Input
Amino acid sequence: MKNFLRPLLVLFVALTVVTGLIYPAVVTAISQAAFSRQANGSLIERDGKAVGSEIIGQQFDAPQYFWGRLSATTPNPYNAGSSSGSNLGPTNPALVDEVKGRLAALHDADPGNDAPVPVDLVTSSASGLDPEISPAAAAYQIARVAKARGMTVQQVEALVAQATAGRQFGVLGEPRVNVLKLNLALDAAKG
Output
């Protein structure tokens, strides 16, 4: 038994040091050297203070701001520590109620808007943390935001166009608008 115990303990300690200390230290050093901004959360700063992350959504529900996708995280919205989808199917009454509630909130915030509501404004993403919306979802909200801010529709449209990112490498994904960046641009425009 002693002949087996010593090699097992040595192997256990060696693997613990390699996989638990050395490997994480090397990966952290490489990520900090090569991708420092991303490794530290892709934070967006204003006046020297972090106001959010480029890759984690935030809740906006005031009429003068663009609204993002719903968050499925619990107990708080956009909680990166509990990222998950809702796992609710299209016929689940809880999902139907959630969509009806968001439709009502959108209608109450902009009662004159009869345009079809883009699906990404009434559903959550798979992670529940999506920081981006489609250009159609941004366009749906332009009149409400312009009115609430006392800006022209054209001014807000121009900010949306500036905040719209195309497909990655020209072919991957869909065009998208980062909600936090757009809302910060709106705040800066009204200065």
Summary: The first helix runs from residue 2 to 34. The chain has two domains: 1-40, 42-190.
